[in-house]
Amino acid sequence: VRIYKVSNAFIDIFPSLKQWSYATFFRLVAFQYLSETIENLLYIDADVICKGSLAGLLDINFDGDKFAAVIKDVPFMQEKPAKRLAIEGLPGNYFNAGVVYLQLEAWAKNDFMNKAIAMLASDPQHTKYKCLDQDILNILFFGHCIFISGDYD
User: Fold this and answer.
1) Which CATH architecture has domain 27-152?
2) Which residues pair with 103 in a beta bridge?
3) Residue 35 to residues 22, 88, 92, 96, 108: CA-CA distances in angstroms?
4) Three-state secondary structure along 78-146?
5) Rounded distance, CA 92 to CA 5, Å?
6) In three state form, how does the secondary structure of 17-53 look?
7) Rounded to two decimals, what is the model's pTM?
8) What is the C-alpha separation between 65 and 53, in angstroms, rounded?
9) Measuring CA to CA, which residue among 35, 61, 67 is closest to residue 144?
10) At what angle do helices 112-121 and 132-141 cross, to 10 degrees?
11) pLDDT tens per residue, range 47-92
């Protein structure tokens, strides 16, 4: 386990955060920063309690166009985001971004950091991306996810 101390100086690159803490965006910055030195990263929200082994995640083989292992969100959270984000095929495939196992090379190669910033800037009132980084990750990763057991969340 390594702990990285991150300055909040990066916050100026993000659009206005009137109703959200800048901490919301630490995940995006961490993915970008760590993509320079780490191949795969397991991101776990601070409110997740791991009750079992995470070793099974190491057996995941990212191949072809798959670069993220995620957990589908609960059924009642599928319809509203899918409708709001207007992506065909998203219902039933919207994931909870509290646990993400990610191939960081794909993050950097696809320029996801700049794409995320542009998407957030295009919605200053947060009417489309109500779940901010979670909605953004669902759009960026759509069709490129391996769905893993909810036991990891």
Assistant:
1) Alpha-Beta Complex (3.90)
2) 40
3) 21, 30, 29, 22, 6
4) CHHHHHHHCCCCCCCCCEEEEEEEEEHHHHHHCCHHHHHHHHHHCCCCCCCCCCHHHHHHHHHHCCCEE
5) 36
6) CCCCCHHHHHHHHHHHHHCCCCCEEEEECCCCCCCCC
7) 0.89
8) 27
9) 67
10) 130
11) 888 888 999 999 999 988 999 999 999 888 888 898 899 999 999 9
User: What amino acid is encoded at 35 in this protein?
Assistant: S
In the structure encoding, which two tokens stand for residue 73, read together?
């969100």
Angle at 80 between CA 95 and CA 21, to 5 degrees: 65
Rounded-to-integer distance, Cα 94 and Cα 73, Å: 6
Q: Where are the domains of the chain?
A: 27-152
Q: What is the pLDDT of residue 143?
A: 94
Confidence band (pLDDT; 50, 70, 90) for 112? Answer: very high
At residue 18, does pLDDT exceed 70?
no
Buried b (16+ CB within 10 A) or exposed e, 56-80: eeeeeebeeebbbbbbbbeeeebee
Cα–Cα nearest to 4, from 48, 38, 47, 34: 34
